Structures are given as C-alpha cells and as structure tokens.
Amino acid sequence: LRVAEKIDGQWVTHQWLKKAVLLSFRINDNQVIEGAESRYFDKVPMKFADYDEARFQKEGFRVVPPAAVRQGAFIARNTVLMPSYVNIGAYVDEGTMVDTWATVGSCAQIGKNVHLSGGVGIGGVLEPLQANPTIIEDNCFIGARSEVVEGVIVEEGSVISMGVYIGQSTRIYDRETGEIHYGRVPAGSVVVSGNLPSKDGKYSLYCAVIVKKVDAKTRGKVGINELLRTID
C-alpha cells in the first residue's frame, strides 16, 4: 500500500491511508524500543528492529548506522540509506541515495534513482488530513541542505541546487519564459536560489529560479556539477 501514486499521469493521494497512520498514534501506547545505538520510547517501532542478515540480503538495500527508519515506511531494492531519517508512510523507490543527515518526512514519496544530498529535508504531511505529500519524481537530484516541503512536486529529471528552499508559497521563476510556478517544479528543470524585486523596487524577496531545462539525453551526457556551473 502506498500513500500516493501516479495514476494516468496524475498524482493521487489516498487519504484513508494517511488517516490510518494518524489513528495508529491514537490506539498505540509508547513502548521501549531496542536499537543498535540506543533505546527509544515511542508509539512506532523501528522498521529494522527484527531484521537479520538474511532479511537484509533478501530486501536488497543498504543501511548505514545510525540511519533510522520507522515502521510503515517502504524502502525499495538498491537503495542506500546513509545516517538519515525516514518517517512513517514514506516511500523510497529503487536506486535512490538518501545521504547523511537527510530527512524524508511522513508520507513523502521519493522516486527511482533520486539523490537526496547531505542535510536535505523533504517535508512530511499527516495533518491536515487533506494535504498532499511532498513528491520527488524519478531521476531527480536535490542539492545539499535544500528543503522541499508542503506537498511540492519536483517533477522527473529535475536538478535542485544546494540551499534551495521550496514550499507552496515559494515563487518558482522560469527565467526563459518569465512564467512563475507555485507548488511544482516542471520536469527537467535546473533550479537555483534567487530573488525577485518588489513592484516598487524597494526590496526583493526570495524565490527559486529555473535557469535552464534539460532532457534525459542531456542529463545522460552531462554531469550534475556541469549543469549547475553553466547557468549564465
């Protein structure tokens, strides 16, 4: 079961699954939970508490201590979890790297072959119940210390530079077209931090800037660093 999935090209959130997660907090009491590095006192057990070597081998992902994953999260094959945190209801798909100190929030959806760099924050959402989860689609790169929250969708093949912060109210400015997006980074976008001036020119406010678009063919030939360096 998955909190959100793409159906006929559109992301659909299954609210009843989010409700089930919330209800589990109401009906379960805190308990002592054993862990390799420590003990915990929480309502949700850790996902790998009863895993042995055979189970890890079968499921085919790598977990580096002290990575923490709560029960109810899904971790696909060929995923690497550096010391990071994955919350309940999250979905991390095949071939993805969750780097050191990155956080995947509750019910967040992370696609295939995604790189979440060090210190990245992907926002969670359980309340309000109708809110949609944050989604990072396949083949995206999220730069170090960036934050994507509040149900924003980063579409397939996008590259987010280091230190970019995107929520529902963040203006996402396409410098080629002048268009401003909210809540969605279009597929194949290369995004950096920026500012847009106020109408009276007295001040500027933070925004995210789409500096270029790339297709899968270009991504395959050009490294991430090169894409981010050649933005003038």
From TrEMBL:
UniProt cross-references to Gene3D superfamilies, sorted A to Z: Hexapeptide repeat proteins, Tetrahydrodipicolinate-N-succinyltransferase, N-terminal domain
EC id: 2.3.1.117
Domain Tetrahydrodipicolinate-N-succinyltransferase chain A stretches: 1-27
SUPFAM superfamilies for the chain: Trimeric LpxA-like enzymes
Gene field: dapD
Keyword Amino-acid biosynthesis attributed: yes
GO biological process annotation, one example: lysine biosynthetic process via diaminopimelate
Subcellular location per the Swiss-Prot or TrEMBL entry: Cytoplasm
Protein's name according to its UniProt entry: 2,3,4,5-tetrahydropyridine-2,6-dicarboxylate N-succinyltransferase
Keyword terms of this UniProt record: Acyltransferase, Amino-acid biosynthesis, Cytoplasm, Diaminopimelate biosynthesis, Lysine biosynthesis, Repeat, Transferase
Pfam families, per database record: Hexapep_2, THDPS_N_2
Pathway of action: Amino-acid biosynthesis; L-lysine biosynthesis via DAP pathway; LL-2,6-diaminopimelate from (S)-tetrahydrodipicolinate (succinylase route): step 1/3
Taxonomic path: Bacteria, Pseudomonadati, Pseudomonadota, Gammaproteobacteria, Enterobacterales
GO cellular component, as recorded: cytoplasm
Taxonomic superkingdom: Bacteria
GO MF, one example: 2,3,4,5-tetrahydropyridine-2,6-dicarboxylate N-succinyltransferase activity
Family: Belongs to the transferase hexapeptide repeat family.
Transmembrane segments: none
